[in-house]
Structures are given as C-alpha cells and as structure tokens.
Amino acid sequence: MTVPPSRTETSHIRAAMQPRGPRGIGKIEKAKDPRSTMNRLVPYLSHFKLGMVLVLTFVLIYTVLGLMGPYLMGVAIDRYISTKDVFGLARISLLMLIAFVLNNVFQAIANWIMAEISQRALKQIRLDLFGHLQTLSLSFFDSNPAGELMSRLTNDIDAINQAVSQNITSLIASVLSMGGILIAMFILDWRLALVSLLVVPIMLWFTNFVARYTRKGFERLQKHLGQLNGVMEESISGQKVIQAFRQNESVIAAFRQYNQEVYSAGIYANTYALLLMPLTNVLGNFFVIVLAGFGGWLALQGLVTVGIIATFINYGQNFINPLRQLANLYNTIQAALAGAERVFEIIDTPPEIQDASDALPLKAIQGEVQFDQVDFAYQLGTPIIKDMTLQAKAGEIVALVGPTGAGKTTIINLLTRFYEINGGRISVDGEDIRQIKKADLRRKLGLVLQDTFLFSNTVMENIRYGRLEATDDDCIQAAMMADADHFIRQLPQGYQTMLSERASNLSQGQRQMLAIARAILADPSILILDEATSSVDTRTEARIQKALLRLMEGRTSFVIAHRLSTIRDANNVIVINNGEIVEQGTHQQLLDRRGFYHHLYISQFKGQTI
Amino acid sequence: MKHVFKLFHFIKPYWKRAVIALVLLTSLVFMDLSIPRLIQRIIDEGIAKNNQPLVIQTALLMIGISILSMLIAIGNNYYSVQVGEGVARDLREALFLKIQTYSYGNLDRQKTGQLMVRLTSDVNALKTLTQISLRIGTRAPLLMIGSLILMFNTDKTLALTMLPLLLFTSAMIVFFIAKMEPLFGTVQQKLDRLNNVLQENIAGVRLVKAFVRADYEGERFEVANEDLTDRSIRVMKFMATMSPALTICVNIGMVIVIWSGGMQAIRGEMTIGQIVAFINYLLTTMTPLIMMTMLSNTWAAGIASAQRVNEIVDTIPDVLDSPEARPLPEQAQGRVVFENVSFFYNGNTHEPVLQDINLAAEPGTTVAILGATGAGKSTLIDLVPRFYDVSAGRILLDGIDIRQIKQDSLLAQIGIVPQESVLFSGTVRDNIRYGRPEASEAEVIAAAKAAQAHEFIMGLPQQYDSPVEQRGTNFSGGQKQRLAIARALLTQPRILILDDSTSAVDVETETKIQDALEDLIGQRTSFVIAQRISTVLKADKIVVIDMGRIVAQGTHKELMLSSPIYQEIYDSQLGNGFRLEEAATGSQRSVPA
Asked: Which residues 96-125 of chain B have a CB within 8 Å of chain A?
C-alpha cells in the first residue's frame, strides 16, 4: 500500500518552501539543557491562554472527527453495502462527508490560531532579545564581532522559526490521533489492535538505528563542510594575493582534498538518512499486510467483519504517520532548542553598568572635565590606564597623542562611561560621572568617531539622528555649518537621498562631514573627536578641518589627533604611552622639551639629511 | 530551464548510475500499484469466498513484494545520492577552478560573499534537484498514470466520476504553488528589513549609545518586527489552509467511492474488495500530486541557481595570456616604462581612472606615488603585474610589452605587499614562505627581520610556529602588514610593490623597515604608495597623482620648488610653514605661512 497524502508530505513541502537562509544542510545541533530551555519558552505561550485552549479544543474535535471517517467507512461496508441498504448508505455517506468537512474546517481554524500564537510569541522573543541587546555594555559588543553576532542571531531566530512554522498543531493532532486510534482499535477488535501494536517497538527501533548513523554521518559531513567552506572562503577572499604569489595550484590541491572528503561524507550521511523512508514505508506496508492477512483469517473464523478490516487498514496508515513525522521533526526541534538556548544566553547576559540609585540628572554644564588618578583595565591584570590625572577647562581643546595602543581610545570610552573605571574618579563640572544619569551625561557629549557610521536612511534623517526633534531647517543649518550642504545638494535627491548600507555612495570625507553636521545638531557641551587616519584629498581635508574648528568653538573638546594642524590648535597636548601621561603642554612647549613627543615627531624625518 | 540543461553534462560521468536509479524507480511504481490489487484479491476471493489458503498466500506475496520494493527503494536512494553528491562535487570544483582564473577585474565585480553563495547554496540547490528528480522524478507521473489506468480498469464509471475531482485538486495545487513563492518572497523582504535594523544597531552600537537612542531604535525595531510578524502570520495561515484543503479533496473522493461504489455493490456490479482497492488507488493518485509540489519547488530553486552558476561558468577572465606570449628571461633588469597609459573600468570611457600616464622606473630605483584616496595610485601599480590590462597605451618591462609576456613568469619577478594585508590560516612561517614554500629557515628569518617582524614573532608563544587564524584576525594591523612585507621580500623579486603597506605601523617602525628595505632594495625596482609624506621623502622619484593624471614628478627637493600640489600636501601633513630644518633642530619657533 502506498503512502497516503499524509501530513508528513505537506510538512516536507512547507519546509522546502521556507525562505532559504544560509543554513548548512543537515546541521545538527543540540541544546545543552533542552528542558530548561523548554521551560523558558513556555511563558511566551502563556500570554495566549485562551488561544491555546481553543487550539487544543479544536485539535481534539478534529482528531475525533478524523477517527470517525474510517470508522464510518467500515460501518458503511458492513452494515449497509453488505445488507444492500440504500438509504442507510446515503445517510452514512452524508455523515462521512460532514465529518470530513468539519474535520478539515476545524483543522484549518486551529492552524490559523496557532499561526497567530506562534508568530506573536516569536515576535516577543525577538523583541526581548533586541531590547536586551540595547542594554548590553560595550564590552559585550567588543568581544563579539558584529558580523559573527549578527549571523548567530539571525540563524538562531531562524532555527526557532523553522520549528514554529512546522505546523505545531498537526504535530499535536498526530500524537492525539495516535492515542485515539489506539483506543478505537481496542474497542473495535482487541486481537487486531494487539497485532497493530507490534509495529510500534519495531518502528522505534528502526528510527533509532537509522538516526544514530545519520547523526554520526551528518556530524562528520558538517565538520568536512566547515573545512571546505573555510578553504573556499579564505581562498576567494585572498584570491588577489594568491594570484600575486602564484599559489593557485596549491590552493586547488587543498580544495580538491576537502571537496573529496565532503563528497564521501555526503554520500555516507545522505544514504543513511534516506534509509528511514523505505524502512518506515515497508513497515507501514507490513502493518497493512499483517492486518489484511490476520484480519482476513479472523474474518474467515467469523471473528471480525470486512468493514472492520477496512477501518483498521485505514487507521493503520494514520497510526504510522505521527511516528514518521516525529522522526522528521526531531532535528528541526533540536536545532530550534539549541537556537533558543543561545538567544536566552544573550538575554541572560547582565546589562551594562546601571545608574546609581541616587544618580542625579545633569543640568546645563560648563564642560570642565577632570580625571583623578584613574585606573582601568579591560581584563584584570593588564592595566590599560594607570593612575591618570588630567584636566580640561571649559572650552579648551585637548589633543591626545601617542602610539597605537597607548590608551587614547580607552580614555574616551571612560569619559562616555562605556566602560566603568576601576579606580580614581572622573568628574564633569566637579560632579563624579558615576553620580550622573548615564543618558544625561551622554546627551552632553558629542561623539565624532573615526569610522563614520551612517544608517541606511535619508541624508536628512542621518543628520537628524543628532537631535530627533530638530526640524528640517535645523538639519540643513547644521549641514551648512559642517560645510556639507554643498555636496548634499549635488546628490541625486539632495537631502532625501537614501544612503546605502555603510554609505558606499559617499566618499570618506563626505561621511565625516555628515558626522560633523550630526554632532553640530546635537549641540553637546563636550566634544569627543577621533580623527580619521585615512587621508582625503587636500581640499576636502581643509574643509573638514575648518568645519571641525567651527564645531569645537565654545566646547570642551577631546581630540585623538592624527593631524599636526589639530595638535597645533590644541590648548593642551597630552602625550600618552602605555596608559600613562608622559608629557603634556602645547605643541611648541613639547617640541622644546625634546622628550618623547619630540622623538615621536622627529622620527618622521629620520635619515633626512639637511 | 535552459540553464539547467546547460549544466546537464555534469551528470554524464554518472549516467550509468543515474539510469539504474531511474529504472529502479520505475519498477518501484509497479510494486506500489500491485498492493491495492492484492488487497482486493484477499477481500474478494479470499474472505468473500472463504478461501483461507489464498488469504495466507496473498499476504505472503504482499510481504515479499514490499520487502522487494524496500530493497529497490534503498537501491534507488543509494544511486541517487551518489549521482547527486558527485554532481555537487564536480560542480563545486568547476566553479572553484573558474574562480581561480579570475583576474582582478572579475573579482572586483563579484564579491566574496556572492561567490561563496554560488559555491554553497547554489551548488546545493542543484544537488537537491538532481537527487529529488532521480528519487521521485518518474515515480510521481508514473504512479499517477498507473493508478488512473487501474482505476479505470477496476471500474470505468466510478473512475470517470473521480476525474473532475482530480482535475480540481490539480488546479488547486497549481494555485498554491503559484502563490507560495511570491508570498515567501515578501516574508523574506520583511525579514531583511528587520535584520537590517538589528545589523545597524550592532554595528553602530557606539553611536546609538552615545546619542542615547535606545528608545528610538526600539521603536524602529518594533515597527519592523510587527511588520514581519503580520506578514508571517498571513503566509502561515495561507499555508495552514493548504493541507486541509488537499485532504478535503481526498476525503470527498472517498465519500464518492463509498456512496457510488456502494450503490453499485448493492446492485451487484461491484465487489467490496473493489471498493477498498479503489479507495487505495485514489490515495495513490493524490500522493504524486503532492510530490509534484515538492518537485516543482525544487526545480524552481534549481533553475534560479543554475542561472547564477552559469554566470560564473560563462565569465571570461579579463586578463589572459596571448597565444604568442613568451616567458620572461630569468635575468630581468626591472626597467618599467609606462607609455601613454590610460585605464578605465569596464570600458567606461567617460570616467577614466588613469589618463596619459608616462613614467619610467629605472632598475634599482624607488618610485614613490603620492595622491589622495581615489586618485588612481593603486590602479597604477596594479597594471604592472597585469592584474588589470591597460585600456590604452602600453607598459614595457625591459623593453617588452607586458602583454607579450606569460603572466606567470611576470609575476615570478614581482613581489607585492597589497594594501589590505591578507594572511592565510596556517603558521607564521607558512605565511612568510607563502610565495616560496621551499625557502630555508634562515631566509625566512632574514625576511622577517628586514620587515621588522622578527622581534614580535619571537615574542609569540610558539614563535614561527604560532598559528595564524583565517584572515589573520589574531594579529594587529601593523603586525599583519609586517608579515606581508616579509612574505613579499622572501620571493626575492626584481620588482617590489608596496601599496600603502606601512599605514598601520607606527612611524618609528616604519623608518626601520625603510632602512632595511634600502639595504635590500639594491638591485630591485620599487614602487611605493604612501599616504604619509615622510614615507616618500627619500624616493628617487616622487610621482604625484591627482584625478588619474600625473601632475608632478621629481625628487622631493625638485617638487618642493616646482609643484604647488606637492607643497600643499606637504604642508597639510607637516603643518603650515613648518619647515624641515626647524623640525630637525627643534629649537626655533615655527613661522606661520
């Protein structure tokens, strides 16, 4: 007997129709603690108690209705066709029709409600995840590279979605109907029921047996695929260098080897995986045959009727399906649990430093900044900032100078309270920043970073990011101050031009000017500036420089300086090496001192004889 | 469709196995179809006629058949998997080999991510297409035709009443298939939007925090989240309707069989066994219809992938050796001359990247190239190893047009330190030896020393055996650059190209590298691109490029006198009017310009 159009088939289609993501084939992941992950998922459904009750009710109803169909068919054969009762046959046919129609209608309704519930629950999980990400500290993002974090999150959410979309209702229904069928079979004829039950352990054993090899196979395949993808990715991204060094042959040799391994592993894994289908099919057939044979024998003994056998054969097929379906869903559910577990891991990551309970709102400030014997380490034992004391009076420009890794960026991270200091005190207008509400503090600080981040939105909205309530005119005014108005107007749609991701349609210099406009609009009391190292053409450079000067006017500014002109404009140049201030003063004072700064500066000209 | 057929030859090496799979598949259909008929026999001739041996006999026959069909199915799977995996392997290899022949122009147009998708997802889609076609391709239509024939054979009138239902069901499936793909497309769009918000928040976390925009971003996310949820629910509801809708068709068919078959049985025109068999045939006919939905989806995905795969297969590398190309003599001098060279990407003559470049680099000299980002510096030096071919003019190496030289022998004479220092997974030693795997340990160390890399390498836990992760993520920018320099030096090239390769190295180390290079450079011609003017001061020739043209060339002293653009760059970097002499003595006050 062939496989009837089971729910298994349709769920296959559904799986195949899912938006195709970058998930690898046969990815088998397991949650470390599936039970507690389950327990955390349940509350997401508990918002929908009424809906769940409705779904369960409908599932129960349609399962019973589904069981009635084959039973009525048996009755039709035994009671009416055999006895040639036309009216009875008409009645029972109508009854069957009603049962079938209602069965499917209820099923559709239950599915709809479940779709609503599961997607709403998924939405809540996403929301919780995103909301929590917002509260995480910068150290979390520093230790989880953006690309990796992003692909992990999308994969995990997708894994949960995959399981949720696999029509949970039909799974529940299958399990329910398994029970129902069992009961119905025993009521109809206990002998046949007992024989039917024999199939269950064999089926489980088969599934288990195949699954064991399949899992091993896919784990191996996954490993080799990982290696192959690694080789491919590395060689494609490094293709230019490979060519330049004429190493194509060796790369190809490595590729061939891994490709061959994936081939053998793929054959192994897929051959085993595909065993399950014919095995369960033959088992299903056995089941039907045994019923037909044994039932036929019983019928000959006058113990059962033909109708009952027909009913049993029909039930038998429905009985096998849930088992098959469970086997199919196993991996999906495993992956979903593993994904959910990781999502919860992120939700459980403690949030960034909280405001002190007695933190005060910050009023208008002068902008005087003071570091008192500040100590800081990203990792315990490797101090980055040591006993640092520095002062910036309101309206001063402070240039931070020093070799890479000296701790310049860290100073800025501490002032913005992205990280909490380990010792000492940082104050703004004499107020310890730990006593100020973080949001208030940051609102007073304007940040222009080296790598200008722009959102995929219009130019106007990107500027407005500095102050959301600003009018269009305010934004244009700020752009003018930043000397950006001119080039913005030359863009295809002017201020309404959409910036593509990472703003590749703007030049480096233009992006910096937008960032400056944004900062001007924010109107901070204290400005923090990380000068870009990459050079732009000299004319743009001069314009950026002018815009920056305009921006710094009347504000306390901390500048990680890479340009001499900035350093020369600074009221105070702070030279940092290995987390300590080694010198400070004006550019000229420092040169005259002929110390570290002088050395740093002069080394550019070493070897140049005059 | 034609894209798939264009790739058909990938099956050829496996054609025997493919044919076996299909033959097995076809024979499976006969097994499938025989079972309902045998059940009918048990009921009609066994039970009805009280023939016990026949019941047992038939049951045993059925068991035999189903075991046989299991073996056949396993055999079919076995061969299908082999063909599928084989095709996937060969396809991957063909694509990979093709990408290996790509020149820089091709690589610029196709990003790593894109190419990776071709090699993974697209190859996978085609593998699935092969496998699914071999596993159910012929089975579905044959099963359908077969059971239709048997239905007619069993009872013509009843079969005829089934026909409209079958047609209706087919139409419904077509409807669902047609609707499904675009629906999922819209979900994907909404998902992309949501991911975009997420992505921006992760990548721009500093900005979001600095501007205290958590609430604002939360709202943006909420909008995208709601949008996605809404759309997903709609699509899921649509999908959730499909299964009951199809089932109801099958069920209605069953009712019709019971009713009208029952009527016939009552009239004595039909047996109960026939009714049961008929119901089974009905189920058998519906199954392939549903299989078809699976098949059509696989094909849709396969066709799309085949098209993308063919794009790669059909790409012609921009730079190819001409048939009469000669190998370069071992003892190249290293004299490089640009004659009226112009270059534009993809034949875009309106925006030339380089225009009328005339430049001569004598053996043993250093040519420094200066200019703003996007001025054309990198492109200029990429023309020397023929990473790109000139659009007009020519480049001569020792008097030979480089297009007349085999590229392999040309590259053998050139050492390149690219702008982006790409390292490969392996050890530090492997990376330095990359261009010359047979180099001795002493040579490796010498190269590392010259590149000022020896010191930090010795500071690593496993020194030269320390592992380098993919793309060298476990090294700082400056360290990567120094390893890349060592790698280039080890090949002992006649021509050395440094493309802004000390930008991440601090000034002091850079000076040391320069000193070391000076000792080594000796007989080689060097091209150095730099952002820092201090890097280029000592070059034999400094070339200033602006908007694709050479605007000045000469030594530092000459240019300081003759080129206003050079002076402008000099001033902007080293300070207005801040003169070299003062820096050196450091005692006098600088004079503002």
From this structure: 96-97, 99-100, 102-104, 107, 112, 115-117, 119-121, 124
